[in-house]
Amino acid sequence: MNLIEDWKNRKSSARKQIRKTLSRLEREKGKKLDMLADQVHEEVFSELDCLDCANCCTSIPPMLNKTDIARVARTLGMGTAAFQEQYLRMDEDGDMVMNTSPCPFLQEDHACLIYEDRPKACRQYPHTNEMEFSQRMNLHKVNANHCPAVFHIIERINQALL
Ligand code: SF4
Ligand code: SF4
Question: What is the pTM (predicted TM-score) of this model?
Fold first, then answer.
């Protein structure tokens, strides 16, 4: 069974176990954990194709900073004000985010229309590599339910540390 199907089948029943694992990993925080996470991240993403999933682009509106807004507006040949008006809204934290979910730039084949110039938040998602894993434990608890890669990365890190 592929990793995405496996996640769909098990994500609800394994939720408690994932949270327990993350609580345990919190005590392992540090460079060693982040190095292992980087390695497992590469392994899981080599076995899984985001184009078969697109769950993040479908369910989590990404945040755009000022640089993102200017870049994406330029790519679309729009002024920043017109781009903001058409595609963005301010969320409850005061951040600018895409105003629809699924994302307006997600295409039918799950490709991103602005892939080369996509927001930084999209590039960094799901925050499990680049020595960032241990700083995002609370986020991983939520993302394990949205992203099959996060789910499997957590399980494999746990296995590796047993
Ligand atoms: S901008 Fe592209 S990568 Fe980001 S959520 Fe939209 S479709 Fe996905
Ligand atoms: S939810 Fe995770 S696995 Fe799915 S497309 Fe997004 S990053 Fe890739």
Answer: 0.94
Q: Which ligand is nearest to the CA of 143?
A: 2
126 lines ligand 2 (CB under 6 A): yes
Q: Are residues 13 and 49 in the same domain?
A: yes
- pLDDT of amino acid 27: 87
What pLDDT digit, counting tens, does each position of 86-128 carry?
999 999 999 999 999 999 999 999 999 999 999 999 999 999 9
36 and 67 co-located in one domain: no
Torsion sign over Cα 145, 135, 130, 64: positive
For residue 150, the enclosing domain spans 3-56+126-161
- CA 83, 85, 90, 91 torsion-angle sign: negative
